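Tokens in:
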């Protein structure tokens, strides 16, 4: 079964969860009016969730909800399950996955972009410094069939390395696992996402092993597309159920996240301290990872040209990975 087929089947299941999502969001709202009683955000254990956690801890949502919170999903399947069941109404989501779901009929919209890209290839060998240098190498790659692998495979194809035997790929369950394979010497390089990239560098240093950011995937993508080194790979997605119930809060949520992103980049140690419990990652590691996470809070409409450039390049022949077309105006709510 192909990744596109799997996503299609999952998307069909998610349509069954739309009614449940409406009920969940309705329960989260006070019986009278704004502010909301509860406002639950979800995100992966990665850079953009630092912004969410800081926004909650620094009370950026104080005028929007009485009980804002952040919870973590650990892998794309867990995210999909939450959307299907209706327990997740607002979450950081891979933009490609959100576009695919939207085009297949699931009621989801993109509010903003929360990173301009946080993918890197780490390696111990100093001779690895570009995608072309991966020829004949063994590389650990996380999340088979999802955004990191799709982007990486597109770059390999661009450099003529997509054929059998050109690059040996060892799939892993997460960026952390990919990083661990690189540290153990079981692969020549690993595709990682912050903060696992920084974790690999720091762990290697403590073990006397020099691991480095060998390839900036954002820069490689910009070179391939002849555009800026920007990969708007994840952003805040909202379900239509949330919009139906509490759309009036979205502008304030957007503004709160924009202010929080500015804070995070200006004072990474403070933001990391706020996020360490939610992400279950040590604060010093989180703080060190923030500069490489390219954290932003760009309204989806403002980022549309970058989003469409990315989706068009990574979606494959016939745009199969995003349901056969670029999302229309209705996808963008910010």
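Residues out:
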């Amino acid at each position: 079964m192909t990744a596109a087929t799997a996503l299609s089947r999952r998307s069909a299941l998610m349509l069954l969860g739309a009614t449940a999502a409406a009920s969940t969001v309705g329960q989260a709202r006070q019986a009278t009016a704004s502010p909301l009683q509860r406002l639950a955000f979800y995100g992966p254990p990665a850079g953009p969730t630092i912004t969410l956690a800081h926004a909650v801890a620094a009370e950026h949502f104080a005028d929007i909800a009485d009980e804002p919170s952040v919870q973590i999903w650990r892998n794309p399947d867990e995210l999909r399950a939450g959307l299907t069941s209706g327990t997740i109404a607002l979450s950081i989501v891979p933009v490609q996955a959100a576009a695919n779901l939207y085009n297949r009929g699931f009621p989801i919209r993109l509010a903003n972009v929360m990173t301009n890209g946080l993918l890197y290839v780490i390696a111990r060998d100093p001779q690895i410094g570009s995608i072309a240098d991966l020829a004949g190498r063994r590389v650990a790659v996380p999340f088979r069939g999802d955004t990191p692998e799709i982007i990486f495979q597109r770059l390999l194809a661009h450099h003529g390395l997509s054929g059998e035997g050109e690059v040996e790929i060892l799939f892993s369950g997460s960026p952390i696992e990919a990083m661990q394979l690189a540290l153990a010497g079981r692969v020549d390089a690993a595709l990682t996402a912050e903060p696992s990239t920084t974790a690999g560098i720091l762990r290697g240093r403590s073990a006397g092993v020099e691991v480095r950011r060998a390839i900036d995937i954002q820069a490689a993508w910009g070179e391939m597309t002849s555009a800026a080194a920007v990969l708007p790979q994840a952003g805040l997605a909202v379900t239509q159920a949330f919009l139906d119930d509490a759309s009036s809060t979205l502008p304030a949520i957007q503004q709160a996240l924009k202010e929080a992103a500015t804070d995070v980049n200006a004072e990474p140690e403070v933001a990391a301290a706020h996020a360490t419990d939610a992400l279950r990652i040590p604060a010093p590691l989180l703080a060190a990872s923030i500069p490489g996470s390219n954290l932003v809070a760009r309204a989806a409409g403002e980022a549309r040209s970058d989003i469409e450039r990315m989706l068009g390049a990574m979606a494959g022949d016939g745009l199969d990975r995003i349901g056969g077309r670029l999302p229309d105006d209705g996808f963008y709510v910010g």
